[in-house]
Give the backbone structure.
Amino acid sequence: MTVAPGAPVRSGPVPGPTLRARVLSTLAVAGLGAVAVAVAVAGAFLHRWNNPAGILLAVGGAVSLGVLVRACARSRAGIAVVALLWLAPVLVLAQLPPGDDRVILGDEAGLVFLFGGTTSMAIVLGRGVEARSTRPVT
């Protein structure tokens, strides 16, 4: 990787993010945590709607959530928190309640939603956060 011609060459450590950037990132991840719970519950009820549109919307919501949290988080811990906040309601809704009314069943649609969403969160967690370099690269 080379620096663009005319770009200033700095010596020493690169300055870290400002306090404002850290606070905004923390607020964005916290907001996405609330959105993760809503996406999980909506996807749990939506994945059976109008096959295959419902499953595409449900898994697409989980994938979109992963893309957004990867862009907003500053560490894998933030991504992990949002992924767990998505996974917890999904697992609770997949459990057998006292009656026989499960939301996520063990059939094809339920397993595609469960494994598709979980796999997308695992991929995002494995990729980590995006690099935020302001240095021009040629």
Observations:
- The helical segments are 19-46, 53-72, 76-94, 108-127.
- DSSP finds four helices and no strands in the chain.
- Residues 16 and 22 are 10 Å apart (CA to CA).
- The longest helix spans residues 19-46.
